[in-house]
Amino acid sequence: MNDIKEFSIVLIAFYNLDFGIRHISSFLKAKGYPTYIILFNQLKTSEEIFNSDYLTASASTHKEYSEADIRLLIELLQQLKPRLIGISVTSLLLNTARRITSEIKKSLDTIVVWGGIHPIIVPEECIQYSNIVCVGEGEIPMWELAENIRDGRQLSGIKNLWIKNNG
Q1: What's residue 92's pLDDT?
Q2: What is the pLDDT of residues 142-151, one digit of tens each?
Q3: Phi-psi group of 86: left, alpha or beta (phi > 0 → left; psi -120 to 50 → alpha; rest → beta)
Q4: Sequence-ordered strand ranges (E) for 30-147
Q5: Residue 12: which residues within 8 A CB-CB, separation 6 or more?
Q6: What mean pLDDT is predicted for residues 61-71?
């Protein structure tokens, strides 16, 4: 069993649009886990919200974030060294979530969990991009997942989690 204090968890929300990660963070902190919340691009108004694939027929070709934003996020994550990253995903910000997750996977050896409205609605789409999808309330599943990872136990069998195995 590894020390809980060395097991950090990062929760990411886009544009400060999510309150669920605050609940999950509080729950995990109460269980003793060092938890960090990152509000990616919280001060920007997102054109992506109005120009999303889910609202228009044509695909969105712009990026509401810069390469510098991505680089800063990855650098911060590398400093925090999280064993687990949770990302809150809405349908309107699916493209952003896919890009961020791709960059995280290139740069860090950690598990990425997607939760939020979009993964609940279409988990079969979301599991293509993340390691794990949460399809309901996330507080207890994220805690059980952290416990299993920390203790080197199998990850399967946790309620509300879809876990990608071997692709």
Answers
A1: 84
A2: 999 999 999 9
A3: beta
A4: 35-40, 84-88, 111-115, 132-134
A5: 21, 37, 38, 39, 40, 73, 85, 86, 87, 88, 100
A6: 73
- pTM for the full model? 0.84
Going across the sheet that includes 111-115, the strands are 35-40, 9-14, 84-88, 111-115, 132-134, 161-163
3-state class (DSSP) for residue 113:
strand
Residues 87-112 have a mean pLDDT of 93
Quick one: CA torsion of 84, 120, 130, 50, rounded to 10 degrees? -110
CB 83 within 8 A of CB 149: yes
**145 vs 154: CA distance, rounded Å:** 9
The identity of residue 124, as a single letter, is E
**Where residue 19 falls among pLDDT bands split at 50, 70, 90?**
confident
Query: What residues contact residue 162 under an 8 Å CB cut-off, 6+ apart?
Result: 123, 127, 132, 133, 135
Which residue has tokens 């920007």? 44
Helix (H) or strand (E) holding 14: strand 9-14
In degrees and rounded to multiples of 5, residue 47 shows phi and psi of -65, -25
Q: Exposed/middle/buried for 134, CB within 10 Å: 0-12, 13-18, 19+? A: buried
